[in-house]
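Reminder to self: tokens first, then the designed residues, so the page reads top to bottom the way the pipeline ran.
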């Protein structure tokens, strides 16, 4: 972030490194270090571009960022081991998937309330609670990749905007459903 004193002001080449490059470089280093140590907060994970849909694409972007930082770093003995990235990406993708599943779980719980359903919704409620706002303050290390399997049955709905919209539309039509259900149909 540029300091207020230099916003909208021309920057000389001599000041560019101090005002723009160094803060940006430090932010990149801090981000990579936090991802590597898995201390990055989950709410920061939500700022990752969702266009990196595949794990491979996200992993490649992190490797590029690592290589860029390593090439700019003064210390030539810098560790160039990128194996940690795969595990971090798995946890990141698991968390993002859990967020999608939580949205789907919320939709199912809305339908449960509107239809006054009495079935066992424990796992759906569990998924909705797992990704609550309090979880967002936790570090990446708190995500177990096995947590994603907890609600795999919601994944289909979570990954299809069309299916989610269909269920929400059904939920919005509860007056008609109740009318039909109660048999108050006259011709």
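Designed residues (187 positions):
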């Amino acid at each position: 972030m540029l300091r207020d004193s230099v916003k909208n002001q021309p920057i000389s080449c001599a000041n560019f490194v101090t005002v723009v490059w160094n803060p940006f470089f430090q932010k990149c280093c801090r981000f990579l270090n936090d991802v590597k140590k898995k201390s990055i907060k989950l709410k920061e994970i939500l700022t990752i571009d969702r266009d990196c849909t595949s794990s491979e694409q996200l992993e490649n972007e992190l490797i590029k960022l690592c290589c860029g930082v390593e090439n700019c770093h003064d210390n030539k003995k810098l560790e160039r081991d990128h194996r940690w990235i795969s595990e971090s990406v798995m946890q990141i993708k698991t968390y993002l998937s859990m967020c999608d599943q939580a949205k789907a779980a919320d939709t199912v719980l809305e339908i449960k309330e509107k239809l006054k359903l009495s079935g066992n919704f424990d796992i759906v409620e569990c998924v909705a609670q797992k990704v609550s706002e309090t979880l967002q303050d936790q570090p990446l290390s708190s995500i177990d990749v096995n947590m994603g399997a907890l609600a795999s049955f919601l994944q289909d709905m979570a990954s299809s905007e069309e299916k989610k919209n269909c269920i929400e539309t059904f939920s919005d039509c509860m007056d008609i459903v109740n009318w039909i259900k109660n048999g108050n149909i006259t011709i």
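Helices lie at 13-37, 42-45, 55-72, 83-115, 122-130, 152-159, 161-172, 174-181.
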